[in-house]
Amino acid sequence: MNMAWTPDEDTQQMIWHLALQNAFEYEGKGAVGSVIGRIMSTRQDLRQFGGQISPLVAQSVQKANKLAQDEGLAYIETILADEAPHLLEGRKKQEKREGLPDLKNVDDIKPVFRFAPNPNGPLSFGHARGVVINGTYSKEHDGTFILRFDDTDTTVKPPSLSAYDFIPKEVEWLLGRPADRIVIASDRIPEYYQHAEKMLNEGFGYVCKCSAEAFRAFRESKSNCPCRDKSVEENMRDWNKMLDGTYKPGDAVVRVKTDMTLKNPALRDWPALRMQDTIQNPHPRPTIASTYKVWPLLDFQSAVEDHLQGVTHIIRGKDLMDSTRKQTLLYEHFGWTYPETIYWGRVKVHEWGGFSTSKMRASIENGEYEGWDDPRLPTIQGLQARGIQANALRNFWIELGVTQKDISVPLATLFSHNTKMIDDDAPRLSFVRNPSAIDLDGEIPESVTLPLHPNHPNKGVRTISLNSPTVYIESDDADGLYRLKEFADIEANGILGSIERSDKRPIIHWVSQSTSKEATLIIPDQEEMQHISGRVESNDHPIGTIVQLERIGYAIITKDGYLLMHE
């Protein structure tokens, strides 16, 4: 039922007025989350329609911020005073919090943070949160930021060799600096073996030879498996049989002794190391390949490595709370102090739905996408191809902050941040979709001079030649009277009218035949890449330049005659 909901006129007005209020209070830098919060606090009946309201709010906030920047705060105040004066009453301009919330336990220490992806593909939009939050805190507190490859699974989520190369580059792009330290877990297997042997020798670990089904029954019944009470000597014999390959995958695992009566079943004697068939599934790094038969599972490997690297703060998703509980029990066995831990909730972007690295890889292999840098994909490479700036991603995640609340946001929120980054530098160009030729009649000047950027005269001008009387406008604009932007009124049959604007006829963009060329505008869509034919104003901007196409939006020049829509 929610899918069919649309806001009534009163609701639309409320959204617009609150967006204006927010833009006024924050000097043209209103925030989507703040407006949504005000809406939901005053209109509880709208909470069930959050998914439909969020993109409307994002559009309104972007529009209100632009209006404030273009026309000034006094203009916004005038609108509110006329249409919604109650929003001005009793409200003082709020001081917007900048940056992330304060951290605990950072006094008198140099904190250590880490971001630990599985290198089974490139970084995605979601990964960027881990990089940005941990990297920003590290910089703020003069700490250390570690990039760690948790690459000890060769079967379920095997690493991709190329990821070891491009992930550090993506991290550096996101932060504007490289990681302070890079750690690769597969290089550290002997360290994990030492700690496994310490567990076995000190009696808080054991080698379990029960089948998965048998142990599941013990776990569910809260009873100990027979392997739990083996002697140290028996456990070490079994451990050595794991190491030398006497045991095969599935025959034995090393478990951490906890308590089989714990309320949370996931914590009951959880597995720490297992055997993997690296002959059939070798590690992709040639220096590792099939060297090891026993591999640490993530919760064990990560816990040990965090301790060895001196990690002081772990900031990650709340879906890993069980990992924290497991690791805390392990830390207690070893006599270590667990790092300060902070969690964030899930952030869902409406337009992307659910993307996983494995699903994206399958879709690429099936030919649905061109590669990891396909602009329809929420990978860092895809976002770069689309013209998203690193600063925009950083600001997006910092604005959302660190909260355990699950959040659903429209892609427009990210685009709003990106617009702030690129607008001042984006030269203007005209692109005419589905062009219709018009032959001008009258005293036509040799050329028309237009600014490269309307708000920055110092950036220079662009000259539109009119050696040919033919101009192109969009077919949808061809009916009725109109004004060619920055040029002249056009009467019926292409007759050149007043150079000065004489009435309220619509202003349209255009290109001349003399200084334009055929071009294609590519618009990324979830399902396909739309290709729109047209003509683009001649220019000498290099490939990769982000431009603003008048009346259309921002686009990036991908190659000669091709532009890719940014939003």
SSE order and pairing:
Blueprint: H1 9-25, H2 32-42, H3 50-71, H4 73-83, E1 112-115, H5 125-140, E2 144-149, H6 163-175, E3 181-184, H7 189-202, E4 205-208, H8 212-221, H9 232-244, E5 253-256, E6 271-275, E7 294-296, H10 298-308, E8 313-317, H11 321-334, E9 340-344, E10 347-349, H12 357-365, H13 380-385, H14 390-400, E11 407-409, H15 411-422, E12 428-429, E13 431-433, E14 435-439, E15 447-451, E16 461-465, E17 470-474, E18 482-484, E19 488-490, E20 507-508, E21 511-512, E22 516-524, E23 529-537, E24 546-549, E25 553-559, E26 562-565
Parallel strand pairs: 1-2, 2-3, 8-9, 10-11, 12-24, 18-20, 22-26
Antiparallel strand pairs: 4-5, 5-6, 6-7, 13-23, 14-17, 15-16, 17-21, 18-19, 22-23, 24-25, 25-26
Helix pairs in contact: 1-2, 1-3, 1-4, 3-4, 3-15, 5-14, 7-9, 14-15
